Amino acid sequence: MKAPLVALFAGLVGLSPFFATAEPAQGSFVASQRCEAFQSIRKQSNPDDLAVQPGQRYDVVEVNKREYDWLRIRMPGSATPLRWVSASCGTVEGLAFNTGKDAQRAGGGDICSRPDQHDGYVLAATWQPGFCEHSSYKGSKPECEGLESGELQISHLTLHGLWPNRQSCGKRYGHCDGPELKLSADTLAYVRPWMPNFQYGTRFGRYQWNKHGVCQTQMDDDAYFRRAVDLVRQLDESKAGQYIVANIGGAISRRALYQKVEDEFGSASAANNFLLICSGKYLQEIRVSLPRELKPADSLVGVVDGQFAASRSQDRSECSADRILIEAGGR
């Protein structure tokens, strides 16, 4: 009998409560043995014959109950990546439930300001001319003054930030305890072309690090900013990014941009990972939802790895009209 089936028969008692009490959760599952990964426990269905492998780590997204014996994990690379695996097949690390009453954990403080509790990332890429010309930044953006004077010429997407994101916390996830920003000279040079505020200092970069970067510990500050720059470059080089660049001084179609995303990623669900932010009729920012595991890849398609959101995130500044104007920078 296959390993997970032993636990399966024990868990089949009271199946209705099993599904009724399933709860969203966050953590890691480290497999200690090979076990089947079921799409449906009741039907024992396993498309693609997926199995967890010893020593491999998987993200937990749900448990069957508080005193769990089954975990729903994410297995990248499958058309149906969310699978159930028996808890007896490995160990669980850093488990936290996503309900408001569990925001405080014993000895752990507010889960919305504790590092490594994120369930994904948001890449925020600015269309700098649109932001500078049509947003109120109260004189705090020297790069905008540089654009106005002609000192800076920007014709690509730029980095606003790479934000660890915890869905249950919403915009409150951030300001975790962590080290101060101390970027190397090489990293500063790497970042400057893609985060133009760095041409004038590191104040904005320090703000991004203190609010967002310290909420993950997989990357130090140098690696974090370099990876964020790489992601913005990949977005700029994508079909959606090049569609914007090709229409500087003109307009794009919101529907056409989302269609380009769907075509490039090979799924109608891919557009759910992209959110367009406008200031009036002008494009200001693109936000891209990314997985918790930022895999090395040559393009955003590989980074996302088929992990598409069920629905697009909401923001009151989302571009509502189909026609979106792309501001040209400089004089």
UniProtKB/TrEMBL annotation:
Keywords: Signal. Residues 1-22 form the signal peptide. InterPro entries: RNase_T2-like, RNase_T2-like_sf, RNase_T2_His_AS_1, RNase_T2_His_AS_2. Belongs to the RNase T2 family. This is Ribonuclease T(2).
